[in-house]
């Protein structure tokens, strides 16, 4: 249950349209549901504005189905990340509304509208085609969180003119997420061009000294472009969630009369 649904329920109680016992029944599953193998956090949407997200790696198809069914019971949306394709058939057999995006390794159930968090889109930038899987995880997560975004792909520093050709579009973004492997120089290049938050996502690609993404991560962490934020290796989900936090905070600031809303 999110804040909007809770507010609607309380308004119904106040107006007399819903009895106290019915409201208690509706709230009975809060703050969590015990499935035996998982404690499903129904309170997270109230705390963070986003329901609990299912991390699919290491979970069986049956466990994912159980958690997803519990999360979707009241008409909410469900997001599953790091989902292997071999589990999808069993999940879809149990949950026909389940949709799978193989390029992102992400599965979703969409039952409720997803209101946009901002009028100004984020920019999702990649260095090369090898970064696409991580970028698409980020893209699908942003879509489910209500973060509007525009893709700027394959603009790595080996052909810096490609990045500079998109400079004006990046300058108009509310936040820029940069997904890059190899030496990971692209977040620094972008960070030197824009004045909005830049989130670096190092990617595990490259030859030996790329060290499974650690070189890209170290490069981002030691960036000479001030204020570049760094997510873990291949963590497109985390970058999307961070962008949503920025937008949600800016929206609250605008609602209270502050400046700088996206």
Structure report:
By secondary structure, the protein is α/β, with parallel strands linked by helices. The chain has 2 domains: 14-109, no CATH class; 122-251, Rossmann fold, CATH 3.40.50. It is built from 11 helices and 11 strands. The chain has a 5-stranded parallel β-sheet. A 4-stranded mixed β-sheet has the order 3-4-6-5. A two-stranded antiparallel sheet has the order 1-2. Strand 10, helix 10 and strand 11 form a beta-alpha-beta unit. Helix 4 (61-71) packs parallel to helix 5 and helix 6 packs parallel to helix 11 (236-255). The longest helix is centred in the last third of the chain and has 20 residues, at 236-255. The two termini are 26 Å apart. The model has no long low-confidence stretch (mean pLDDT 88).
Gist?
With 262 residues, this protein is α/β, with parallel strands linked by helices.
| Corresponding CATH architecture of the largest domain | 3-Layer(aba) Sandwich
Helix content: 25-40%
Indicate the low-confidence ranges by residue numbers: none
Distance between the termini: 26 Å
SSE string, helices as H and strands as E: HHEEHEHEHEEEHEHHEHEHEH
Strand order of the largest sheet: 8-7-9-10-11
Q: What structural class do you assign from the helix and strand content?
A: alpha/beta
**Would you count the extended β strands for me?**
11
- The number of helical segments is 11
Radius of gyration: 20 Å
Oligomeric category: single chain
Top-tier CATH class of the largest domain? Alpha Beta
Q: What is the third-level CATH name, the topology of the largest domain?
A: Rossmann fold
Major sheet characteristics: 5 strands, parallel
């Amino acid at each position: 249950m999110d804040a909007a649904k809770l507010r609607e329920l309380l308004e119904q109680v106040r107006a007399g349209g819903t009895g106290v016992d019915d409201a208690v029944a509706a709230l009975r599953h809060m703050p969590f549901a015990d499935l035996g193998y998982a404690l499903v956090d129904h309170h997270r949407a109230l705390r963070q504005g986003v329901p609990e997200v299912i991390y699919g790696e290491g979970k069986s198809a049956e466990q994912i189905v159980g958690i997803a069914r519990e999360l979707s019971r009241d008409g909410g949306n469900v997001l599953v990340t790091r989902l292997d394709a071999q589990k999808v058939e069993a999940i879809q057999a149990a949950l026909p509304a389940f949709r799978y995006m193989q390029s992102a390794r992400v599965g979703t159930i969409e039952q409720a509208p997803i209101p946009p968090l901002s009028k100004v889109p984020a920019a999702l930038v990649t260095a090369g085609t090898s970064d696409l899987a991580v970028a698409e995880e980020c893209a699908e997560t942003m879509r489910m969180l209500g973060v509007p975004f525009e893709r700027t792909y394959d603009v790595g520093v080996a052909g810096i003119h490609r990045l500079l050709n998109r400079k004006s579009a990046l300058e108009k973004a509310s936040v820029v997420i940069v997904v890059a492997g190899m030496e990971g120089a692209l977040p620094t290049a972008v960070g030197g061009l824009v004045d909005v938050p830049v989130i670096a996502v190092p990617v595990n690609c490259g030859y030996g000294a790329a060290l499974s993404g650690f070189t890209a991560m170290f490069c981002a962490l030691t960036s000479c472009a001030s204020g570049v934020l760094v997510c873990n290796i291949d963590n497109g989900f985390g970058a999307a969630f961070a962008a949503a936090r920025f937008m949600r905070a800016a929206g609250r600031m605008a609602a209270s009369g502050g400046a700088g809303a996206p």
